């Protein structure tokens, strides 16, 4: 079953519709400010996975904002989509009700791969939001970064074969604030991710590319600030955009997978 929520002067049509009425034509006919919400018996278990950008650092003076996780959580609440963030870490501000995540500041893909199995065994996620690679741009070659991403995706899909893995491009790195080679590696790494994801899909794995390459240097901490973090992490605007990208991607995945297997239940 699905719930169509129509925003009309703060009033909602919460009529339940059967699968038969939810097709491409019906969705296309929905007007603006409508939300297509699959009905589940238990919360979707979502694991935000990555480095300090998943943790939510905006700079050395702001390390506890929750980053994109705060706004993404609030969007799911507004959608009435039952969601539970999962992970071994618990960080974030008061307005982030569910603070669990797997954002590890400073970590590379190799480090995440080395610990991933224990996290997944404990958390049992239904969806995994992976954004990783920024720290790899410091020392790793592009070839190594692509190999490490391939390995990490294989580890995740091996331990969570029923979960949907959403792999995002990483934010840009400001070339005026960090070594230019890091900025170039980020650009070329992002360009390579779609092919990596496509190869995994061809192997039958439940992997999806989330294209965030429209993020710009204006979405980063100021390049000329005195903050040692300058030009690396997203600012408030950048995290807001990332939350929007993740939100839309999650809805695309669950809308296209009406029979998404949950850890404790199935959709009705």
Q: Which short descriptors sum up this protein?
A:
alpha/beta; SGNH hydrolase-type esterase domain-containing protein; disordered N terminus; 3-stranded antiparallel sheet; 2 domains; Ester_Hydrolysis_Enzymes; SGNH_hydro_sf; SGNH_hydro; 7-stranded mixed sheet; 268 residues; Rossmann fold; disordered C terminus
Notes on the structure:
This is SGNH hydrolase-type esterase domain-containing protein. Pfam families: Lipase_GDSL_2. InterPro entries: Ester_Hydrolysis_Enzymes, SGNH_hydro, SGNH_hydro_sf. The chain has 268 residues and is of the alpha/beta class. The protein has two domains: 39 residues, no CATH class; 216 residues, Rossmann fold. The chain contains seven helices and ten strands. The strands form two sheets. Strands 4, 5, 6, 7, 8, 9 and 10 form a seven-stranded mixed beta sheet that branches. The protein has a three-stranded antiparallel beta sheet with strand order 2-1-3. Helix 5 packs parallel to helix 6.
Helix-strand blueprint:
Layout: E1 2-6, E2 16-17, H1 24-29, E3 34-38, E4 44-50, H2 52-55, H3 68-79, E5 83-85, E6 89-90, E7 100-103, H4 109-123, E8 127-131, H5 142-159, E9 164-168, H6 180-202, E10 207-210, H7 236-256
Parallel strand pairs: 4-5, 4-7, 4-8, 8-9, 9-10
Antiparallel strand pairs: 1-2, 1-3, 6-7
Helix pairs in contact: 3-7, 4-5, 5-6
What is the structure about, briefly put?
The protein is α/β, with parallel strands linked by helices and 268 residues long.
């Amino acid at each position: 079953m699905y719930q169509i929520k129509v925003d009309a002067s703060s009033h909602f049509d919460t009529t339940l519709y059967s699968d038969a009425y939810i097709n491409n034509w019906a969705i296309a006919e929905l007007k603006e400010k409508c939300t297509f919400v699959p009905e589940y018996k238990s919360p979707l278990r979502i694991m935000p996975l990555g480095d300090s950008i998943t943790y939510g650092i905006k700079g050395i003076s702001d390390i506890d904002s929750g980053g994109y996780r705060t706004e993404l959580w609030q969007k799911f609440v507004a959608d009435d989509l039952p969601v539970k963030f999962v992970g071994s870490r618990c960080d974030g501000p008061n307005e982030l009700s569910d603070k669990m995540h797997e954002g590890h500041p400073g970590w590379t893909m190799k480090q995440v791969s080395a610990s991933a199995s224990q996290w997944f065994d404990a958390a049992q996620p239904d969806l995994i939001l992976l954004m990783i690679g920024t720290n790899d741009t410091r020392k790793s070659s592009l070839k190594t970064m692509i190999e490490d991403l391939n390995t990490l995706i294989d580890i995740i899909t091996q331990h969570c074969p029923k979960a949907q893995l959403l792999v995002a491009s990483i934010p840009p790195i400001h070339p005026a604030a960090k070594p230019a080679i890091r900025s170039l590696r980020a650009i070329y790494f992002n360009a390579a991710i779609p092919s990596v994801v496509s190869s995994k899909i061809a192997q039958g794995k439940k992997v999806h590319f989330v294209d965030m390459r429209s993020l710009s240097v204006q979405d980063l901490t100021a390049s000329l600030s005195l903050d040692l973090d300058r030009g690396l992490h997203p600012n408030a605007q950048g995290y807001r955009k990332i939350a929007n990208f993740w939100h839309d991607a999650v809805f695309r995945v669950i809308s296209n997978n009406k029979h998404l297997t949950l850890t404790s239940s199935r959709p009705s």
